[in-house]
Design a protein that fits this description.
CATH architecture: 3-Layer(aba) Sandwich
Number of helices: 14
CATH superfamily: NAD(P)-binding Rossmann-like Domain
Strand content: 15-25%
Largest sheet: 7 strands, parallel
CATH topology: Rossmann fold
Strand order of the largest sheet: 3-2-1-4-5-7-12
Radius of gyration: 20 Å
Oligomer: single chain
Number of domains: 1
Helix content: 40-55%
CATH class: Alpha Beta
Amino acid sequence: MHNRSAFAELNGATVLVTGGAGLIGSRITSRLKQLGARPIALCTMSAYPERVYSGLFGVDTTDPDTVTGDIRDTALVRRLAAESDYVIHAAALADVAACTREPSAAIDVNIAGTQTVLDAVAASNRVRRMVFVSSASVYGDGEPPETRNPELADFRELLESVHGRLPRRFDESAPLRPVSVYGTTKVWGEQQTSVVLGQVGISYAIVRYFSVYGEPQTIKPNSHSWVVAWFAARAALGLPLHLNGGGQQVRDLTHVDDIAEGTLRALTSPRAHNETINIGSGTATSIRDVAELVRGHFPNAEFLATPLPAGDPLGGYASIRRMEAVLSWTPAVTVAEGVERYVQWLRRTPQAAPSWLTETALL
């Protein structure tokens, strides 16, 4: 699955990973160690309880290369960037619902914090490439083809009358039309990465993650994201699976192992220089499909139709042609395999299904 020769230049290199103790960041730093690199993980350690970082994510908080700090700390970020050969900027207020509730916090972390990282990389005489972690949320709900070509409208209407709503396929040249505060901050980050690093001639790559899932992901209150973790946790506790809007929304579920692998390929691939690349599976999976896969492991799980939350995108899936061409790679974990892996992990780690889920259900 992994081609070490693709990462030969990481052997002995120092890589700064902002957000390096989170779900994705910890997976990236672990993989970097396997490849002989020295990862420096910078993280506030505030998104989860400490037991999640040390117990579930396997973060060694005593490691001197695990730095508890903030990307808005100019002096700290400049010092770490100055000793790094590569930078992966994954730190963000990444919860869409949290960004909607607290737009000022989203601007502070995702915009001001990103500017601090970009300034530090631009001032470094050592960084060879930075990867900016973006999101499929920059596409919004996608632009229907008929808005560009009215002649397609009748044909699409006919198809949708037969098959239901057709999922949108997002390619990197699609218009950016975010429908959330989070998505807007990511559009800004992409453009600012291009401007700041382009001016000083430092190579960069922008990766747009689709719906990340996989063990040891744990759910947070008041979040609509992470449907595999939500459904599996609720099913394990004997709670019904909520199908918002009937579960017809579509996601491109991409396992965290594949997300980490694609990110590191974007960091090292010569063809990824100054490119913007989707990191997704290229497969459309409906929320109801996920519920059915989870119910396959918990046969007594019940479905409950619930209203569609405001702002919940109908979604789509990634075009992965550019990813395959630029990175010479295709994701390996299918959704069925990924759901099974998560369920088996949850059974081994029952404390990952939080007690507040049951308490909330009793209110």
